UniProtKB/TrEMBL annotation:
Highest rank taxon of the organism: Bacteria
Record's protein name: Threonine kinase
Pfam families: GHMP_kinases_C, GHMP_kinases_N
Signal peptide: none
Cited PANTHER family: 4-DIPHOSPHOCYTIDYL-2-C-METHYL-D-ERYTHRITOL KINASE, CHLOROPLASTIC (PTHR43527), L-THREONINE KINASE (PTHR43527:SF1)
Domain GHMP kinase C-terminal: from-to ranges: 190-250
Gene Ontology molecular function, alphabetical: ATP binding; kinase activity
Species name: Sporomusa malonica
């Protein structure tokens, strides 16, 4: 049986920072995917070292061995804060477990394996979650998102996840913005609870602005001001990456294309990538029964 496991990427995070010194993010899963296919008797290519590490750690966790390889196919940009590595790693963990034991790993098991490789986004959990991406201390489900479209822009360059999280000044900079981050969490959590896209956008915007002292994004203020003129509910950002996203509720999409053009005109230093949808996270498995991990 051919097993395919698909994991969503992200448009950065809805919120990221610390509370009482504990790292966390609120996931921002989107319909832009990495897919891993089990290949009987094949081999893992050296071009996918993190997926290969995920397979190795999964087999050790299961006390198992298997004669198979994986093909990793992904359109997610690398080094941009779109959870490309987390998508590859989580899909590879699940694919390896299914190939060898026929058992689905729980999302918590995948998280533990992934965190042993690098700081990890929680996009493989169903819904939207608050997740400690460094040590896994926080794993709190917040709900499912209302319809929101995100126009993704890239400020350029790449950010290395490991190097970013090893910054010596990161803890103190996160501590300095904790009050704003607590407020942002409250807005996003309430927005998810009652299905209010505007509250989610307000919280995401607050977190994106608070992160400017840690990883500055050119044109963020300009993009926020322009997007408001076109009815956007807010702006999300990759707190350890280069992308930012302009968020539109379903009833505000009439201004979407004009907003993109105006941001591109006013901010030539950023590039528009594509428009995607905020979704409930989770792994999609085919060759099995096609449902998410849980």
């Amino acid at each position: 049986m051919t097993i395919k496991v698909r994991a969503p990427g992200s448009c950065g995070e809805l919120v990221q920072g610390t509370i009482n010194g504990v790292n966390f993010l609120i996931t921002c899963p989107v319909d832009w995917y990495s897919e891993v296919t089990v290949v009987p008797g094949g081999s893992m290519t050296s071009a996918e070292p993190k997926a290969a590490a995920a397979v190795d750690k999964t087999l050790k966790y299961l006390y198992a061995a298997g004669d198979f390889g994986l093909v990793v196919e992904s359109d997610l940009p690398v080094g941009k804060g779109m959870a490309s590595s987390s998508a590859d790693i989580s899909a590879a963990c699940q694919a390896a477990s299914l190939a060898v034991t026929g058992r689905r790993l729980s999302c918590d098991e995948i998280a533990d394996i992934a965190l042993a490789i690098e700081p990890t986004d929680g996009i493989f959990y169903p819904g939207i979650i608050m997740f400690d991406h460094v040590q896994g201390k926080i794993r709190r489900t917040l709900g499912t998102p209302p319809p929101i479209n995100i126009a993704v822009f890239d400020a350029g360059g790449e950010v290395d996840t490991l190097a970013f999280n090893d910054r010596q000044d990161l803890a103190s900079l996160n501590q300095a913005k904790e009050l704003q981050i607590i407020q942002a969490v409250e807005l996003v959590a309430k927005g998810l609870e009652i299905g209010d896209a505007r509250l989610i956008g307000q919280g995401a915007t607050m977190s994106a602005l608070a992160n400017q002292a840690i990883l500055y994004k050119p044109c963020l203020d300009t993009a926020i001001n322009i997007s408001r003129d076109f009815g956007a509910v807010g702006v999300c950002a990759a707190h350890s990456g280069t992308v930012l996203g302009v968020m539109f509720s379903a009833d505000a999409m009439s201004g979407h294309e004009a907003c993109i053009k105006e941001i591109c005109r006013a901010c030539p230093e950023v590039a528009y990538l594509k428009t995607i949808q905020l979704i409930a996270g989770g792994l999609i498995i085919t060759g099995d029964d096609g449902s998410e991990c849980g």
